Amino acid sequence: MKKARITAAVCATAMTGVLLTSGQIPATTTPSAVAASAPAALASARTDGEALQRSLRAAPEEGLETPFEQSNGSRWTSVAQARKFRHQLDAASDRVTVQTVGRSGDRQPIELVSVGFPRPKPLAEAAKGSVVLFNCSIHGNEPSGREGCLQMARDMSTTNDPNWKRLLKQSTVLFININPDGWKANTRGNADGVDVNRDFLGLKTPEAQTLAKVMRDWKPDVMNDLHEFGPREYYDTQALVLWPRNRNVDPQIHDLSQRMVNDYTGAQIEAGGHSTGIYGELVKDGVAFQQIAGDHQARILRNYTGLKHITGQLTETASRAVPDDADQGATAVNRRRVTDQYASAMGSMSMMMENRRQLARQSDQAAERATQAGADRSGVIYFSGQDNMLPTSSAGVETNPMCGYQLTAAQLKDTRQTMKLHGISWTRNDDGAYVSLAQPGRSLIPLLFDERAEYGITEAAPVTQC
Ligand SMILES: [Zn+2]
Fold first, then answer.
1. Cα 141 to ligand 1 centroid, rounded to whole Å
2. Distance from the CA of 195 to the center of ligand 1, in angstroms?
3. Is the pTM of this model over 0.85?
C-alpha cells in the first residue's frame, strides 16, 4: 500500500540559506501529491506508461537472460558477464550496437549501447534527432541501475509492439556504465577512489571525460542517472527521484525535468505499487523537514545535465529493505531494486514518447536563450543557492554579468581539453584566450572560471568592457 507522502511543502533546510516563500518556489510535489491535484493528466500519463512497460516486459527474451535474472535476484551480474551479455545482444539484434567510447582508469573499455529501429542511427544522424541517455550505476556499489539497463536494452531489442518500434525509430536510446572499475571492486568511486559523480566540472577522471564527450556529441534530449541510497529513519521510501536544482539551469529545462520526475518516472514507479519521495528530503508525517542531500552543485551529473540544456534527473532505489517492502526476503528486495530502476527508465521513455518535439525544441531554445543572455549581459549568474533557496550573500550572485573571461596562455593550456569536452569555445588573443558568455555554455562558464565558483577549475579574469 502506498503511504501518504509529501504535499507541496516548503522544505526546511539544514543548509544555511534563505528559503523562498511558497509563491516563489517551483512546485516540489511528489508523484502522490501530483496525483491528488491533477488526476486526469497523471492518469493518462500512467496508463500509457503502464501499457508501454507491460508490452516491453512481454518482449520475447530469445534465450538471453542476465545472470541476475537467471538467479532470480540472488546474484548480481559481474562486469565481465555484462560485457558478454552486451556483445551477445549486439550479435543477436540489428537494433543494438555496442561501441567502446572510452577507457576507465584501469583501462577497461567503457561501452556505449545504442538501440534504435530497425537499427540504431549513427552518431551524426542520432544527434540531430531525439536521444535518451541512461547513466547506469556511476557508483560501482549500486548495482540495480545497471541490471535494469541490461534488461531494458534486451527487451527493446526483441519487442514486437508497434508502439515500441515507432518510438525506437524516432528516438535513439543510449545505455552507458562509465565506472567498470568500481563495478569490479564493488566500490563507490573509480580505481583511484574518486567519486566520478563529483567530477563533472573539472573532468579529471577518464570516466567523467567519457560521459561528457558522449553528452557533447550525441546531444541527448533526456537523461536519467540511476543510483541507490541507504535508507534511514524518515528517508525510507522504496525509491527517490530529483531534478536539477542548480539555479542557473534554464527555467524551461528545469520545469520539464521536474515534470519528468513527477508525472513520468515517479508516477511509473508508484504505478508499480512502490513508494517514492524526493531525493535528499527527510519526511515525517508527510512533511519534508530537512534537506540532507540533493543540492545545487554543478559538478554533480544531475545538475550538470540541466546546465547542458538536457531534461534530466536522478533516480535512487533503496538498497535495503524498507517498511514498504513488508518483510520480503533479500532476493525479493533485490528484484524490487531493479524493478524500480526499470520503471523509472520506462518513465523517461514515456516522457520522450509524449513530449518528443517539445523536449528537442526546449533543448535548442535553451541553448539559444543562453547565448542571447550572454550577448545581452542579461539575467543573473548564481554561485550558490538552489531552486528553493536564494544565495545567502551578495557573493553568491552576479547581478551585472560579465561579457566573458580572459584566460592567460597558461590557463588556456591547462583548461583547453576540459573546455572542449564541455563544448565551450574560445578565441585566441595576445594574452591567451577570451571565453565569451555569448554561447550555449553561458551558465557553465562562470562556474568554471569565476573566483566565486565553489568548484571552478581556474580563476580567470572577468571581462566587463565588451
Ligand atoms: Zn550513487
1. 8
2. 9
3. yes
